[in-house]
Design goal:
heterodimer; A: mainly beta; six-stranded mixed sheet; four-stranded antiparallel sheet; B: mainly beta; globular
């Protein structure tokens, strides 16, 4: 079984300062990992994904994440926050577990990012 | 313009009524999924379908039903048996439900269901 822990439910940063959203995972198998972003009353948009290639993954809008197997972490970072980054962010682990062979997604509970002027 | 559409955006229902949420995709994806989102929680899987005319229960299927008669459509019915149906419902699709753990799911804009 797999699980995801997002260590902060709320993060507040000033515009132009770095963003760090923390995620730890647990998985019986070698997982794929994703970060999604959700703006209010919208669907989820894929930011980036790790699929066992390079451990440093670059995504859209200047975000990146580093897979650290020894720490079972997949933290999301951005060098300089922008007002438009204010949203909820979900860390997701994917393993090959669904009936019929499909991949099961397990979602963290989300981190609400607030960006202040 | 390719993507996933869900309708309606907002839906109100009286207790005891069944209601059907629409999900359509023109991405030519084989697999489709329904999730439920509640405040402060991650998404939970209701049903999924990896191919037309086949679907499987997810983690919280009780009180819900689905059909997959066409590749592009995967409607979800919330029945009166669902004890707490007020939530945000998200539909997703992926290229190949059997494509492995790297298969990326793409999400629609969601439907917010409120039971009065």
């Amino acid at each position: 079984a797999q699980s995801v822990t997002q260590l902060d439910s709320h993060v507040s940063v000033s515009e132009g300062t770095p963003v760090l959203l923390r995620c730890n995972y647990s998985s019986s198998y070698s997982p794929s990992l994703f970060w999604y972003v959700q703006h209010p009353n919208k669907g989820l948009q894929l930011l980036l994904k790790y699929t066992s290639a390079a451990t440093l993954v670059k995504g859209i809008n200047g975000f990146e994440a580093e897979f650290k197997k020894s720490e079972t972490s997949f933290h999301l970072t951005k060098p300089s926050a922008h007002m438009s980054d204010a949203a909820e962010y979900f860390c997701v682990v994917s393993t090959w577990e669904l009936t019929g062979g499909g991949n099961k997604l397990t979602f963290g509970t989300g981190t609400q990012l607030k960006v202040e002027l | 313009d390719g993507g996933i559409t869900q309708s309606p955006k907002y839906l109100f229902r009286k207790e005891g009524q069944n209601v059907t949420l629409s999900c359509e995709q023109n991405l030519n994806h084989d697999a489709m999924y329904w999730y439920r989102q509640d405040p402060g929680q991650g998404l939970r899987l209701i049903y999924y379908s990896q191919i037309v005319n086949d679907f499987q229960k997810g983690d919280i299927a009780e009180g819900y039903s689905v059909s997959r008669e066409k590749k592009e459509s995967f409607p979800l019915t919330v029945t009166s048996a669902q004890k707490n149906p007020t939530a945000f419902y998200l539909c997703a699709s992926s290229i190949n439900g059997r494509g492995g753990k790297t298969d990326t799911q793409y999400f629609g804009p969601g439907t917010r269901l409120t039971v009065l």
